[in-house]
Structures are given as structure tokens and as C-alpha cells.
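In this section we walk through a basic example: taking a raw amino acid sequence and producing a predicted 3D structure, encoded as C-alpha cells. The instruction is simple. Fold the sequence below.
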Amino acid sequence: MTPFIGEIVGTALLILLGCGVNANTTLKGTYGQNSGWIVISFGWAMAVFVGVFVSAEASGAHLNPAITFALATAGKFAWADVPMYLGGQMIGAILGATLCWLQYMPHYAAEEDQGKILGTFSTGPAIDSTPSNFISELLGTFAFALAVLFLAGPVFGGPGEQLGSLDALPVALVVLAIGLCLGGTTGYAINPARDLGPRVAHAILPIPGKGGSNWSYSWIPIVGPILGGVLAALTYGALQ
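The resulting C-alpha cell sequence is shown next.
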């Protein structure tokens, strides 16, 4: 795979499985309905593991604009390649969310709660407070990106460069920790493509009674994670 295709495939797998665990634990009539936060957190961690494992050799497995910006800010990735990676991540995120909808189509048709439908695609606050919600996404991404930067070592960031000898597993464990420890406030997007791509899919897919896509909130899981990633990179540089 080329780096661009690697980011598409890796992000699509991440979102297919991640939104899949959201759908499985939320939508009416699934076997996993009401399984709870532990299942969701583990599901997203395993989704990251699969996406990173598949795409690491091709693209370095960013799968997340916040990580791409963090690596570029830290000098581990070329700024000239950032737009290509962001494009691949967005395409992959929309594709993954669409595939998830295909998997759970009968359950989306049966679900009457608009909030639950949207929640399987994108994130939202448990308590609506713009400053607090923004800080939650910033801090969660800061912790994630800082951990990834230390896991990555001195040269990681491009095609063929692996995430150290442990590869995808430690990244998945970091995501699990973020979900279990910090995720209860906003649903821990910690990834602009993870939230925006599925939100776009929600807006365009023909889901009966789906309601709106809550675009007024959508800037928080974009700006918060990017700023958190950049701050993590600056902190990483200061600690070296």
C-alpha cells in the first residue's frame, strides 16, 4: 500500500470497528445492547490495534489528524505530507462509518432514539459545557499524543517506520486507558477524523428518523484534539 492508501484503509478499519462497538452496545435489538462503557472502551482500543497493525508499514499508522500534527510539530514527520495524510484519514473515516451503517442497517431502521443513532457515529458531551468539553478533548488528546510520541522513538512518523518493537499493542492500551479514565465527559474523540468523518456520514446516509448531526458541537472534537496534539509535541520537545 502507498501511504495515502494505508491511511484510508487503517482509518476505515478503525472507524468500522469503533463505530461498530458503539452500534452494538446502543442500537435496538443487537445482542450487545446495553453492554456498557467497558465494552465500548475495549472495542475502541481493539479498533485502534487493528487499524494501526494493518497500516503501520505503509503509512506509519497515524489514522488521526491530531497525531499527524503532533508528529510534524515534533519534527518526526514532513509538513509537506500532512495534507495527503489528512485526506486519507477523512476518506477512511467516512468509508468506515458507512460500512458500519451497512452492517447494522436493520437496527438503525428499528432505533427510534435520534440521540442514540447520532451517538453511534460521533461524540457528544455528557454534560453540555463548552469550556469543559473543549478542555476534556484537549487533555485526552494531549495524554494520548504524548504517549504516542514517547512510544514512537526518535524517527517514527513516515511509511515503513514501526511504532517500536511492541508495534500496535501499546497504542491500543493507551486508547483503552484514555477511554476508561477520561472518556466519560465527551466520549473521547481524541481524533478529528474519528468524529468529523462519521458525522458527515450521518448527515448524508439515508437513516430513517435520524435527526440532526449536531454541527454546533462539531468544532470541539476537531480543534481540541489538534491543539492537544500540538501541545503534546511541544511538551515532548521540551522534555528531550
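Looking at the output, two observations stand out. Residues 13 and 51 are 5 Å apart (CA to CA). The two ends are 33 Å apart (CA to CA). In the next section we compare this with other chains.
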